[in-house]
């Protein structure tokens, strides 16, 4: 893993301006005028409904998808054309890789990705994530495999961390200890974290910023958390996210209706009549 040593203090950790992206050029964009700028030490929660574009954005920031416009920089460098060191992306697709489900001992697996070079941090993460070095990767649960992934990704001294729903398999205790570790990394080393999640338990102290993704855009920009004008007793991440998600759903329904698309059961009886006329099961 390449680490960016001592990036200049005057650079934004993450600078994404007016990012628009389509799967196929000329088709409707999945991301439209997305803006996300963070300073070093920020911990940003990326919130939004399924399909809002969170994973796509994180993969672009990680340099895994090429965009036509040079809209995204990390530590002053283009994320695809001149990717910076010190960036770690951890996503859900890792667990489906056949290599990580093969008969390999965890200690050998971590050493194969440089664990011996980061022994102090590796051992601290082994304890936090409750990982047994003698586990065999093909014999452990999805949650245990996820812990190994996190240990692998976090044991180097990263500058920017992009997390895409990777705590969903963790039990409450391990997740709480991991969140405490991430907070300490940002406070003590100035590391920057973008964390997409739908699980809000135990996150009250985690974010310093919140970004709401709505149908591929960021209509609210970056929100500082906790808000200075809201009493601590009323600072409820879950209620905030729930309100946004209800708003997202209504907006999505309006847009889909305009295109003649409706989710859920079909109420038009002509659909059923056409089906039974086509497939006559009376004989």
UniProtKB/TrEMBL annotation:
Signal peptide: none annotated. GO terms for molecular function: ATP binding; ATP hydrolysis activity. The keyword ATP-binding applies. This is CCR4-NOT complex subunit CAF16. Pfam families: ABC_tran. InterPro entries: AAA+_ATPase, ABC_transporter-like_ATP-bd, P-loop_NTPase. Keywords: ATP-binding, Nucleotide-binding. It comes from Kwoniella dejecticola CBS 10117. It comes from the Eukaryota. The keyword ATP-binding applies. Residues 14-240 form the ABC transporter domain.
């Amino acid at each position: 893993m390449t680490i960016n040593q001592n990036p200049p203090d005057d650079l934004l950790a993450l600078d994404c301006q007016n990012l628009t992206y389509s799967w196929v050029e000329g088709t409707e964009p999945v991301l439209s005028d997305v803006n996300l700028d963070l300073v070093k030490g920020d911990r940003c929660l990326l919130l939004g409904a399924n399909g809002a574009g969170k994973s796509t954005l994180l993969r672009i920031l990680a340099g895994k998808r090429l965009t036509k416009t040079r809209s995204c920089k990390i530590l002053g460098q283009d994320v695809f054309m001149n990717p910076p060191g010190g960036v770690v992306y951890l996503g859900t697709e890792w667990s489906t890789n056949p290599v990580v489900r093969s008969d390999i001992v965890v200690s050998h697996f971590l050493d194969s990705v440089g664990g011996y070079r980061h022994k102090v941090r590796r051992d601290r993460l082994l304890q936090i994530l409750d990982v047994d070095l003698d586990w065999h990767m093909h014999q452990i649960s999805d949650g245990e495999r996820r812990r190994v992934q996190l240990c692998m990704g976090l044991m180097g001294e990263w500058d920017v961390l992009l997390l895409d729903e990777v705590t969903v398999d963790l039990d409450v205790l391990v997740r709480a200890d991991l969140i405490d570790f991430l907070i300490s990394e940002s406070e003590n080393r100035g590391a920057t974290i973008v964390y997409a999640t739908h699980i809000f338990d135990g996150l009250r102290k985690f974010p310093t910023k919140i970004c709401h993704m709505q149908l591929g855009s960021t209509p609210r920009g970056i929100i500082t958390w906790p808000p200075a004008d809201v009493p601590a007793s009323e600072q409820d991440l879950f209620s905030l996210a729930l309100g946004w998600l209800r708003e997202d759903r209504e907006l999505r329904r309006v847009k889909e209706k305009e295109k003649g698309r409706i989710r859920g059961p079909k109420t038009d009886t002509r659909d059923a009549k056409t089906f039974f006329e086509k497939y006559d099961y009376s004989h």
